[in-house]
Amino acid sequence: MSVTHSSNEEIIGRDEINDIEAILSVTNTDVDEVQHIVKDNADAIFTWDYSLARPQLRKLYEKAKTGQWNATTDLDWDTDIDVEQVVSADQSAAASGLTVGHYDGTVVEKWGDKEWLEFGIDARRWTLSQFLHGEQGALLCTAKITETVPWYDAKLYASTQVVDEARHVEVFARYLDEKMGGGFQVNAHLRMLLDDIINDSRWDMTYLGMQVMVEGLALAAFGFMHQMTDEPLLKKLLRYVMSDEARHVAFGVLSLKEVYDGMTDAEMKDRQEFAFEAAIRMRDRFLQQEVWEKHGVNPRDVVPLVLRDPTRDIFQQMLFSKIVPNCKKLGLLDRNDQWLRRRFEEMNVIQFEDWEDTGSEYLKFELDAEAPDAVGQAMAGSAGD
User: Fold this and answer.
1) Engineered SS bond to 246: which of 48, 106, 291, 362, CB 3.0-4.6 Å?
2) CA atoms within 13 A on the CB side of 213
3) For the chain, what are the domain ranges?
4) What CATH fold (topology level) applies to the domain 54-68+82-95+104-384?
5) Binning pLDDT at 50, 70 and 90, where does residue 68 land?
6) 40 in helix, strand or coil?
7) From CA 157, how far away is CA 153, in angstroms rounded?
């Protein structure tokens, strides 16, 4: 019996993925919110079976124990940073890749170097802020996984990730406060996705939403910024975070592969739709509507152009370079008549499907190794399209 998928309207609240009005209608209604409460509908599970049942997860646990670092002593927080100089040097990459001439005919056509630099600084602050908020989401989700996953080996590893995520929240918050003069509130699209992940009672959905989708995109985004910036403190901070993040994504891939291989088509349908929703929410948040608004620009005037900006398009595609091969590894692309494959084709990111999945690639991100050249791979792939 074939499985019928929900419509785009039912999954993401709109029929067309590029419906600008629908995207921009999702906004923060309380920008001064300090606490945000989400109902966690999960059961905490004890397991009395302490046997070594999953050697791959135990290997990951051992790697995590030896891969710990101290944000206070391992990073040089006394580094003097000229924010204007740094952003001027690499704002195109850090601010999602914007082609200045592409915006002729809009209010920003009259911007000079000063206005674009100010925008670039706020775009950097905004980007790092969303990294920070996403890391807090990962902190909560991994604590939830520790409670809800029924496997002993997975609980051990998840506990190390809780420590990792606390460290990530610490370093991004400190960098924003000490070096960038503060940050931005959480983007509404990101908050909506984090709410959905926390709210779902099924432990594998916490894995899929956070470990595979959110952390997978973060690993790609960190890699892109790490390659493009020469600011030494940020570069080292990102390299340290990436070493953790690759293990986190591998944790999701290695765990879910076992689970999804045994799921029915109907069960996989729910996971495919959730992966698609997560992909769209994360793509939507990178439109930076809050930054445009701060600089007196109506996002409706520029976001349609942002979506078609050739420079930004490479950056946006690159964000999915970890997600797509991992979804393929998990069987999500091609189950149910290749439903998720067609969604990723529509998003123009399917070209990454044969890249190495993070279940094996994570070893390349260890601190004593040279991090993979994400930018070079993306450029080479783009040139071959």
Assistant:
1) 362
2) 28
3) 54-68+82-95+104-384
4) Ribonucleotide Reductase, subunit A (1.10.620)
5) very high
6) coil
7) 6
